[in-house]
Structures are given as structure tokens and as C-alpha cells.
């Protein structure tokens, strides 16, 4: 095939693991299906996934990373601090966000140089709608959460069912939903609760979807078809469900281990040996994603809750730079768990895909980040839902009220991940209660486990040849190829 005839798609991820990981996986899927792919990102972010890109390129796929310089000096950050997850304080986070904002110009220049046929850009890059219009090419909006959460955002933004309630904890029902979903004001993001500077930042992001060619979802038809339908009929824009992308593209263990890997795990064998020594489905995996930082008081309650539950667990603890001194509690706890062999702590970053797929893992405590949900579901695991911020409270409702594969721990307040909350500490008794239900042998647990396994099977089938997500990806690529062709014809005729 001549180079110029090959469809060229440029991907621009947003630098936070929960957004970047699925977009990189999706870009790799496009390349594996014959598309010429360019990913635009900064150096330190590229280093977390470049291994996979090199491996795909060496296997003959047309994929590359185009690096741009993060303006570290201009925003006053040390080199290499380029990802939202490095925002350990509001000040640093502000500087990282400013740096990301400043990348608009160099990215737009690259668009002009590269002359792609289409751009797939993260929802957070709303400005790319105009950039694509200037180039006369389609912009695909990449939404990194569920249809359910996107519908909830749009409906709550439009109908404001939370206005005029007597208190922050009074329940309201999300209007227009096929299921009766109740929430409180405290559970929705603060920028939606009342107008603020953050509202002016987020609203255009959600509105930009309507001005895009369509939206790409890391979800699958069999999982939330009611909301896929609702989204299309109410927003009136095209969407494609091509998930779960992670299991589709990271098939072998090496790929799973490499994904999003920022540091070498000298101890990999240790956690694996520990898991290997456990009975099937006996271990609870506890993780709050890549951003959440918990107050020390909350870590203490989790530690006691897990210990008191009497179950085996692997717990991923992100080092909290602020209270290094208080970590001695966790170090003592880690030592005690080593002796009792009941628990294993992974500091900072866990090879999550490998742990979830291990036969000893029987359930997960999750903050309801969409990627973690899809990955658990793919492994056929039921979940304890402990949402923290952003879309996670909507995802909790999907898990608990619609899919019925989650036990709510009872989280009440949606708070930005880096505003460590000391008031809203979940008590150890609540944690034990949820763990008992999830990991116990009661009817509720058995039924949840069965439903999770069924969804896990559907997740595997949908990405196989002939499956729903598989066909959708092929159709989307074909559609983009036809657009390219008709554009070329237009140019010839005029
Ligand atoms: N992740 C991981 N190891 C960790 C923490 C996170 O591999 O220790 C991955 C996880 O598998 C998921 C992503 O990072 O793919 C986190 O995305 P999610 O949507 O679950 O939550 P977020 O981090 O955006 O809150």
C-alpha cells in the first residue's frame, strides 16, 4: 500500500494514568488494524509506554511516538514532573496543569506538519475541536469512563436535580435514566454542585463532545447497552464502544507487566510467590488507583479493617510525601502481616493486570476508576465500591444498582484526590462489613460472583473476531478510510 493511502491517525493523550493507559492501548489497536499511528506526548510520559510501542513497531506495525518538550522551566517544575499523578500538592498540580495547557501551541504546529486524516484526543483537550476544524479533519473525542457516567454528567448539568434540596445529604434521582438511581449533592463533583472557577473549566470539556465527529469509549455494548443507547439518543452524536482495550492489546504476561510501568519491580517474584501460596479466590486486592492519596487516619482504619476481616489481601499503598513520619505505623503493620502471612503491601505501583488475573485473587476494593472496573470485570471479579472523586460515584451506582456486582462501602463525599480528608474517614467496621459480604459464602456473594463471571466472559468475547467491540473498531476504521477517500476525490474534482 502506498504510504499516502494509509490512514494516518494522531492520538493526543492527557497525562494521567487513567486517561493515558487506555488511549495508548487504543492507539496500538488502531496500528494493529493497519492504521498509521502517531502518539503525541512529552518525554517523561512517553517513557512509561515506549517499550510497548517499540515492540509493536518491531513487529511491523506503523506506530510511533512524537515527542514534545514539557515547559518545565517556564512553569517552575523539575524535569520529569509532567503527569497529573505527580501533583502531590495543589501548587505542584497547578504548575503541571499550566504546563499541559502550554502544550497547545506545539501540538497544533505538529498537527499542521503531520497533516493527519483524523485526530483522537482526550476529552480534556477540548481545544482540539477548533484545531481539527481548521485542518478540515474529524476530531474524535476520547472519553475514558462509562456511558453511564457521561449520561449522568450531562443530565445533571442540564436538569440540575440537586438544586433546591434541603441538605447536601438529601437524595435526588437522576432524571431520564432507565434505572432509578439515587445520589446526594455531596456525591457529585463540587464543580457541578455549584458554579465555580472549576465549572468554567469542566463544562466546555463536556460540551466539546457535541462539537466532535464522535466519541470513542473504552466500554462494550454488552456491558451498558441501555446507557450507550441513551447517550446516542440524547446527545445525538456518534459513539463507538471498542473496549475493553487493555485485555485486547496486552495479551501476554510481559505486555501486562510492562503496561504503565514506571519503575522496575525488583520484588515482582515476591508478590507472585505470595499469591501463588494462596488458595484460589481467597485474596482481596485493594487499590485506589493512580491518584488518590489517603489521610493517615484513613490508612490506619483500612489496615485494621483488613486485618480484622481475617481475609488474605494485597494492598497498594501510595507513599504519602506529606506524612513520611507517620509511615512507621504502616511499616509495623507490614511487618505484622508478613509474619501472619495474611497481607502483602505493594508500595506505590502494582502490576494490576497480573494480580487481577491471578487465580488466587477473589475480589477487589476499588475507588471505581473506570479502568480498574473494566480490568476487574474482565477477570470476572466482584468489587467493593469505594468511590473518591470525579466520575467514580456514578460508576459505583452502575456497579451496585445496575450490574449488581458491587458492594458499596458507603462513601459519602466526592472530594478532589489530593485534598486529603480527615473528617470523612471510613471506619474499620464498615470496611469489615463490606469485605464479609464480598468474600463470604452467602447467597449475595455467590450471585454477584456469578454475574461478574458472566460479564467477564462477555468482555472476552466482544474483542474476539466477530465480537461487538471487534466489529465496531473495524467499522470505525473503514468509516475513516472512506472519509479520507471522499476528501481526496473532492480535492481532485475541485
Ligand atoms: N494502575 C496500575 N497499578 C497501580 C495503580 C494503577 O497498574 O498501582 C493502573 C490500573 O490498572 C488502571 C489505571 O492505572 O489501568 C488507573 O486507572 P483508573 O481509571 O482505575 O483510576 P485513576 O487512577 O484514573 O483514578
Automatic annotation (TrEMBL):
Keywords: Glycosyltransferase, Transferase. The lineage of its organism: Eukaryota, Viridiplantae, Streptophyta, Embryophyta, Tracheophyta. PANTHER family: GLYCOSYLTRANSFERASE. It comes from the Eukaryota. This is Glycosyltransferase. One of its GO terms (molecular function) is UDP-glucosyltransferase activity. It holds the Pfam family UDPGT. CDD domains: GT1_Gtf-like. SUPFAM superfamilies: UDP-Glycosyltransferase/glycogen phosphorylase. Belongs to the UDP-glycosyltransferase family. It comes from Trifolium subterraneum (Subterranean clover). InterPro entries: UDP_glucos_trans.
Amino acid at each position: 500500500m502506498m504510504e499516502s493511502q494509509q490512514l494516518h491517525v494522531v492520538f493526543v493523550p492527557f497525562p494521567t494514568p487513567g486517561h493515558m493507559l487506555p488511549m495508548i492501548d487504543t492507539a496500538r489497536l488502531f496500528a494493529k488494524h493497519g492504521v498509521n499511528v502517531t502518539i503525541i506526548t512529552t518525554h517523561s510520559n512517553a517513557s512509561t509506554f515506549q517499550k510497548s510501542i517499540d515492540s509493536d513497531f518491531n513487529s511491523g506495525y506503523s506506530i510511533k511516538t512524537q515527542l514534545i518538550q514539557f515547559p518545565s522551566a517556564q512553569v517552575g517544575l523539575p524535569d520529569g514532573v509532567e503527569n497529573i499523578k505527580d501533583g502531590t500538592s495543589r501548587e505542584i498540580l497547578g504548575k503541571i496543569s499550566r504546563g499541559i495547557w502550554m502544550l497547545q501551541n506545539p501540538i497544533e504546529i505538529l498537527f499542521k506538519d503531520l497533516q493527519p486524516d483524523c485526530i483522537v484526543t482526550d476529552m480534556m483537550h477540548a481545544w482540539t475541536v477548533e484545531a481539527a476544524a481548521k485542518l478540515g479533519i474529524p476530531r474524535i473525542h476520547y472519553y475514558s469512563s462509562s456511558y453511564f457516567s457521561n449520561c449522568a454528567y450531562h443530565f445533571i448539568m442540564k436538569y440540575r436535580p440537586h438544586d433546591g434540596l434541603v441538605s447536601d445529604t438529601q437524595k435526588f434521582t437522576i432524571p431520564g435514566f432507565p434505572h432509578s438511581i439515587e445520589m446526594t449533592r455531596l456525591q457529585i463533583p463540587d464543580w457541578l454542585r455549584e458554579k465555580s472557577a472549576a465549572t468554567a473549566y469542566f463544562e466546555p470539556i463536556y460540551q466539546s463532545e457535541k462539537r466532535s465527529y464522535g466519541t470513542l469509549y473504552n466500554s462494550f455494548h454488552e456491558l451498558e447497552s441501555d446507557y450507550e443507547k441513551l447517550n446516542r439518543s440524547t446527545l445525538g452524536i456518534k459513539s463507538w464502544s471498542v473496549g475493553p482495550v487493555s485485555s485486547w492489546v496486552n495479551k501476554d504476561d510481559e505486555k501486562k507487566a510492562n503496561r504503565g510501568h514506571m519503575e522496575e519491580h525488583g520484588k515482582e517474584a515476591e508478590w507472585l510467590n505470595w499469591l501463588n501460596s494462596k488458595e484460589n479466590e481467597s485474596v482481596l486486592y485493594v487499590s485506589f488507583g493512580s491518584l488518590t492519596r489517603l489521610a493517615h487516619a484513613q490508612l490506619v482504619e483500612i489496615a485494621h479493617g483488613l486485618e480484622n476481616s481475617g481475609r488474605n489481601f494485597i494492598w497498594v499503598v501510595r507513599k504519602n510525601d506529606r506524612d513520611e513520619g507517620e509511615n512507621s505505623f504502616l511499616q509495623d503493620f507490614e511487618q505484622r502481616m508478613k509474619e501472619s502471612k495474611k497481607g502483602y503491601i505493594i508500595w506505590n505501583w502494582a502490576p494490576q493486570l497480573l494480580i487481577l488475573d491471578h487465580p488466587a485473587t477473589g475480589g477487589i476494593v476499588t475507588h471505581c476508576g473506570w479502568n480498574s472496573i473494566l480490568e476487574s470485570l474482565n477477570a470476572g471479579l466482584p468489587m467493593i465500591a469505594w468511590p473518591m472523586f470525579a466520575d467514580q460515584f456514578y460508576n459505583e451506582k452502575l456497579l451496585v444498582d445496575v450490574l449488581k456486582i458491587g458492594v458499596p462501602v458507603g462513601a459519602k463525599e466526592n472530594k478532589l484526590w489530593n485534598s486529603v480528608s480527615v473528617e470523612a474517614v471510613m471506619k474499620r467496621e464498615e470496611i469489615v462489613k463490606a469485605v464479609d459480604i464480598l468474600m463470604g459464602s452467602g447467597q449475595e456473594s455467590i450471585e454477584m460472583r456469578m454475574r461478574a463471571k458472566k460479564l467477564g466472559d462477555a468482555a472476552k468475547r466482544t474483542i474476539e473476531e466477530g465480537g461487538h467491540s471487534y466489529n465496531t473498531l473495524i467499522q470505525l476504521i473503514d468509516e475513516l478510510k472512506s472519509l479520507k477517500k471522499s476528501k481526496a476525490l473532492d480535492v481532485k474534482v475541485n
